[in-house]
Design a protein that fits this description.
The structure is a single chain. By secondary structure, the chain is α/β, with parallel strands linked by helices. About 30% of the residues lie in helices and about 25% in strands. It has a four-stranded mixed β-sheet with strand order 22-23-1-24. Strands 2-15-17-16 form a four-stranded mixed β-sheet, with helices on one face. Strand 16 and strand 17 form a beta hairpin. It starts with a strand and ends with a strand. The relative contact order is 0.16. Bound molecules: uridine-diphosphate-N-acetylglucosamine (UD1).
Length: about 425
């Protein structure tokens, strides 16, 4: 298994190209199931999760081709990929595939809307909490789906082959369930109103793409989304937005090591809340034409309390990285996780680097230390792994991060981007 070796202590200086967002690319790719025409997606990141979803969609009948192969462009290695689901050859998403990537469960929406039926495995447990699917089931039932669960599978059927528009109030904000209901309602008969919908930028990116395909969606990015169902959708060309989690991660890395880095292609509006928090820690955040410049010179890191919330609040996907930053703050900070239970697995590993953190329920109390010391560490999820990389960059001596496959799921060319800014970081292949 590959490892990442870091020798900490260097400031970061230079520029880092921000890739297309994993969490936007995945639902956009799934939307290709809604049409027999070609959906062309630009700025698709080269990540293990994207490759895995390509295989899963292939199982349902989606062909793909990469335009112009993998070219080195200014933005990095952004790819343009054509997805075509001329016909759906299988409406079953088996356990072997869904259990590998939870987001592949989302095929339930487009399959049901286009084919009138879907049989999709329950995703099962996950390293960051139980992550149930009750909202997907309840929402699809509101659109008329008949659903039963047997042997770990959800069998869903639309009476007379088509879903029907309705009003659904999400009892809890869910990104995935909002994606799925928006896709399903696009091909339903009549109007759907989704209340208490997720407002994440990835939701807006998907709605824009569906509208380019001929859907009639209004209000994406607000709590209320209205969808006028249409009979069919066509192909389109659409760009994946820049990754706000990658942006925030590298901004926190600079805030921790010190230095001056421009995050090329980054969009401040996608993570303003998080940028404000990073600024409060003492880093300078400067919007520039090409992206966002992050600087920190000399001064110490100020402690800041945060609570994770749905967008536009502080994202749970930046919580672990922020905790990494706070381990070296000049004082005490409180980090409260409200989105996922059990999302503090990085605490024990950060402690191995010398961090002082105590847990009280959903809150971590971080007592800043003046220095961290490198050590072998390992993480059990994507964002936790990258928090250890950030801490390793600031720690004295050598840190090895094991189980690199977590990082490969969501961070494109991580070691190349960081070493390009002066970090001593390399991948050691097993
Ligand atoms: C997406 C992101 C993930 C991010 C999360 C929250 C992708 C591929 N993943 O995950 O990186 O951390 O949003 O911003 O975009 N819930 C239920 N019932 C349901 C569905 C969800 O109780 O039917 C709960 C979850 O357990 C969780 C909360 O709702 O506690 C939010 O989850 P959700 O927004 O659905 O996360 P994902 O879409 O899985």
């Amino acid at each position: 298994m590959d490892r990442i070796r870091i020798v900490g202590g260097n400031e970061l200086t230079g520029s880092i190209p921000i890739s297309g967002a994993k969490n936007a690319a995945l639902p956009l790719m799934i939307a290709s199931l809604l049409t027999d025409d070609t959906l062309t997606l630009e700025n698709v990141p080269h990540l293990a999760d994207v490759e895995q979803l390509i295989r899963i969609l292939g199982n349902h009948g989606v062909d793909y081709s990469v335009n112009g192969r993998r070219e080195k462009q200014q933005e990095g290695y952004a790819r343009t990929i054509n997805f075509t689901a001329r016909s759906i050859v299988d409406t079953t998403a088996p356990y072997e595939l869904v259990s590998k990537m939870r987001a592949s469960f989302w095929v339930i929406g487009p399959l049901l809307a286009r084919m009138g039926e879907a049989r999709v495995s329950l995703p099962g447990g996950c390293a960051i909490g139980t992550r149930p699917v009750d909202l997907f089931i309840e929402g699809l039932q509101k659109l008329g789906a008949e659903i039963d669960i047997d042997s770990g599978y959800i069998n869903a059927r639309a009476p007379n082959g088509r879903l029907t528009g309705n009003r659904y109030v999400f009892p809890k904000v869910s990104v995935g369930a909002t994606h799925v209901l928006m896709m399903a309602a696009s091909l339903a008969k009549g109007e759907t109103v989704l209340e208490n919908a997720a407002r994440e930028p990835e939701i807006v990116n998907l709605a824009d793409c569906l509208n380019a395909m001929g859907a009639k969606i209004h209000g994406a990015g607000t709590e209320t989304i209205t969808i006028d169902g249409v009979d069919s959708l066509s192909g389109a060309r659409h760009a994946v937005i820049p990754d706000r989690i990658e942006t925030g991660t590298y901004a926190m890395a600079v805030a921790m090591t010190g230095g001056d880095v421009t995050l090329e292609n980054a969009r401040p509006d996608l993570l303003q809340g998080a940028l404000d928090v990073i600024a409060q820690t003492g880093a300078e955040i400067i919007p520039v034409n090409s992206g966002i410049r992050v600087k920190r010179n000399g001064a110490g890191i100020s402690p800041v309390d945060i609570t994770t919330e749905p967008f536009p609040g502080f994202p749970t996907d930046l919580q672990a990285q922020f905790m990494g930053l706070m381990t070296m703050a000049e004082g005490k900070s409180r980090i409260t996780e409200t989105i996922f239970e059990n999302r503090f697995m990085h605490v024990q590993e950060l402690a191995r680097l010398g961090a002082h953190i105590t847990l009280a329920g959903q809150t971590a109390i971080v007592e800043g230390v003046s220095k961290l010391k490198g050590a072998p560490v390992m993480a059990t999820d994507l964002r936790a792994s990258v928090s250890l990389v950030i801490a390793g960059l600031a720690a004295e001596g050598e840190t090895t991060v094991n189980r690199v496959y977590h990082l490969d799921r969501g961070f494109e060319r991580l070691e190349e981007k960081l070493s390009g800014c002066g970090a001593t970081i390399e991948r050691i292949s097993a």
